[in-house]
């Protein structure tokens, strides 16, 4: 599959889609947390310099070669803390809402830390994010405007890439802080590797896909951990179904490889890291093409 220009008509209010202009590989990428749009109903108690720390900044840029390689790329435009599509739609602490009566909510440990489907805490220390409780109407509206459309778009891209094939592969793109903080599940102060790959302990992808991705990254000189400290969340749970031929992996890229985690600016290593990840995508695309059937 040769280099090709991406389609130019994929921009939307809620998300952007970059489709290849030519043949589509059996590989789909999505970047759910690199959005930086905060609509008017977002009422922060913290300045942007604080709350934007939650964004997976520049992740979509690191993998921007995807559509030129025949790989579609979906990117959320809204900020992660506004609506986190990598959380279940009911992953909300009822105490964070102004009125939870009648709602069937199932808050996880992440929601208790203030980072459920709508965030209420600010990294890295968990300071209150919002000026008041989340309004019930806002919570439900964000699900309808952001959460459901994003998952529908990802599902459609996966089905398009799968057409006529036995298997399709999906890579969910994220970034991570170099050192764990108080809002993380791993021990505060823990150092992270270059890359963490996750498959929900084998539930969202076959072992061959995980091992192929791990090997390719190691060959490019990255240090790689598997399912530690991240195991994958709602996007993998919802879309990964290896029994039905849909294999989903999550990738976390250490921010120290390409940005200053305090100033949020790109560092001199950005171009090198993007080039290495582009090389990874070429090899992963070729592997997927042989394995898709």
From TrEMBL:
Keywords: Hydrolase. It comes from Stappia indica. Transmembrane segments: none annotated. This is N-formylglutamate amidohydrolase. GO terms for molecular function: hydrolase activity. The lineage of its organism: Bacteria, Pseudomonadati, Pseudomonadota, Alphaproteobacteria, Hyphomicrobiales. Pfam families: FGase. Residues 25-48 are annotated as: Disordered. It comes from the Bacteria.
